[in-house]
Every structure is written in C-alpha cells, then in structure tokens.
Amino acid sequence: MTEKNVCRHLFTLLKLAEMGAHRRTARISTEYLAGKLGASQQTASRYLIELDKKGWIERTITVEGCLIRITELGTKELQKLYSSLRFLMEAAYPPSITLEGTVFTGLGEGAYYIAKEQYRRQFLEKLGFDPYPGTLNLKLTTEYDTRTRNELEAYPAVEVEGFTSEDRTFGPVKCYPLTIENKEKGALLTALRSHYDASVLEIIAPVLLRKRLKLKDGNKVKVEVLILP
What we know:
Blueprint: H1 3-18, E1 26-27, H2 30-37, H3 41-54, E2 57-62, E3 65-70, H4 72-90, E4 96-104, H5 109-114, H6 117-127, E5 136-140, H7 143-151, E6 158-160, E7 163-165, E8 168-170, E9 173-180, E10 184-190, E11 200-204, H8 209-212, E12 220-226
Antiparallel strand pairs: 1-3, 2-3, 4-5, 4-12, 5-11, 6-9, 7-8, 9-10, 9-12, 10-11
C-alpha cells in the first residue's frame, strides 16, 4: 500500500470517528462524508469500500442509509496516529532534520581517522555498522541549511570517546545517525579533527556512498538527520 493510500484511509477514518463511529454504529451518508472529506460522493464511497476490505470498519447498507462502525483494528490505527502526533507535539526535540548539500572531494583526512581501530570499534558498537574508510563530504550552500546544521549542537548525539595512541591524542567525536537520499544509512560526524567549518557535512556509512548512489562532485544530496530521544 502506498503512503498516499494510508494517509487518505487514516483521514477518512478520522472523519468517521468525528461523527462518533468509533464508539457506536453511526448512520452516515456518502454525500455527507464527501462534504467532510472535501471530495466527490463517488470518492467517499470508494474510500468506505476500501476501509471495509481492510477490516477497519464494518459497513451495512440499508434503505435508510449506510451504517458504519469503526472496528477494533480501525481503532488501533487511530490510536497509533494519536500516539505519533502526541510524540511529535510533546517531544523536546524534532524527530529529524533534513539538510541538502553539494558533493565535493575532500582532503582525504577522514579515511585516516576512521581507520583507527579505537574509533572503528566504537562506531560498530554505538552506530551498528563498520564504516567504509572514508567520508562523503557535502557543502551546505544555503543559509537555512547552515543554520539548521548549527542547531544540531544542542541536540543529543552518539558520543564516541577519544583516545591516546603513539604519543598522539585523538579527540571525541559526536555522531548523528542519518539517512542519505532516503536510501542508505549512515552517520554525520563532528569534531573529527576537521579543517572544515559547520558548512561542511562529513558522513560515514558501511558502504562507499559515491559508488552506491552514483554520486559525483557537484551532485546535490539530501540527508535526513535523526535526532535521538
């Protein structure tokens, strides 16, 4: 089922609940429901048929009209929607932020640091993957993206501890799990002894992202950074 279908089914279910169908059997005409949905009577009728097939409502056609009651399964869907909306409205942080940047070739420093065993072990343990030795570098090009990126500093992050090796100190790293182009999982790294400022994103993933996503310098890439609860 497509996301669009899910949305229209939930919206129809919500309108039926507004008319009391979640608590009792309600007599609801397709003409009246169509007005509530802002759709045609034919469309409203089709939505009811689809909800009936999904088991979200019980529908009985009588000479006096259509009798509808939201089933236990339908009620659970409404409760899930309620829980999601409540979480969004009451959470201290947004669940995610979306950033867009342009791919560019970096200085190659990322591979050196990521390959350090003390970092790799923690990436695997705390992020759930062993990163490909290198970073995908994105340059943020708008003021909105740069400002949004700076807001991340106030949000919870996965903390990777620093260490000392061979008379050299390697500092701690903050990681933010993310999704690249809505396809690949990875993480945004900050404070990886980088020469870049906050307008650059350094991203790690378990795969070579340039190859997997067929990226070249100059390509625009969207990432969704997930905020920890």
